[in-house]
């Protein structure tokens, strides 16, 4: 049996490189959250309250992202936790998605209760707060953009900041309409729009996290093709028990049994299979069992 060298430390270090940016975005979020909640409560603005709820999930999500990266980086594999705590960032991303679903539901329920008798909302404080929020979100958005490509966890926080960025534009629009026309329905309508806008992105984030937790094959990996190409290697008669999954962002893992011909050299088959997975599919962590064809009977007798 052979074991390819993993690249988990590379994935963890990729997330770790983003820690200073993550901390900066977290601090910006905390400051603006306090401002938005204060103004939203004082002005009875549903648009601001909705955006503040999103900002709360940003702060909480960024905090979870920060904690998850620290856990994954400092607590590597042990004999008790053979994969370390790498999955903590996936759980954090799923937690962010659940929070966003909850925020959207809250805003919709609150907006329905306000449609009958929308409260008067002063436009100027809402407008000024929206401008401050727009600036804060632009800075946080820029800080997290690079890291969102490397880590699902940071991508979750990045999507929340993106939602807040759009939310700030919505609150800005609400403030302008209220200030210039006095139309009371602008605030609850835009509050609902902000809550609904984030849902498709939340579904995508939750789907990616659940795909990893259920250990499905990565979406961009053709497992059937891998089986075919492994089976086409010199000396290989059969490929079975092939599994490909994602441990955490940037860490694809595979395992398989390769039944070989009697004349085949196991070391050469193993090297060829590892090179195929690493060079063609970027799967550098592969556990491959090279076995004689007679051994496949035992595998067929297993219940799963």
Automatic annotation (TrEMBL):
Pfam families, A to Z: Cation_efflux, ZT_dimer
Signal peptide extent: none
Keywords in alphabetical order: Ion transport, Membrane, Transmembrane, Transmembrane helix, Transport
Residue ranges of domain Cation efflux protein cytoplasmic in the record: 218-293
Domain of life assignment: Bacteria
DNA-binding in keyword set: no
Bilayer topology: Multi-pass membrane protein
Protein's UniProt keywords contain Methyltransferase: no
UniProt cross-references to SUPFAM superfamilies, sorted A to Z: Cation efflux protein cytoplasmic domain-like, Cation efflux protein transmembrane domain-like
Residue stretches spanning the membrane: 22-46, 52-73, 85-109, 121-144, 156-179, 185-203
InterPro entries: Cation_efflux (IPR002524), Cation_efflux_CTD (IPR027470), Cation_efflux_CTD_sf (IPR036837), Cation_efflux_TM (IPR058533), Cation_efflux_TMD_sf (IPR027469), CDF/SLC30A (IPR050681)
Domain Cation efflux protein transmembrane: 22-213
Subcellular compartments: Membrane
PANTHER family tied to this protein: CATION EFFLUX PROTEIN/ ZINC TRANSPORTER, RE54080P-RELATED
Assigned protein family: Belongs to the cation diffusion facilitator (CDF) transporter (TC 2.A.4) family. SLC30A subfamily.
Annotated NCBIfam families: CDF (TIGR01297)
Protein's name according to its UniProt entry: Cation transporter
UniProt organism field: Amycolatopsis acididurans
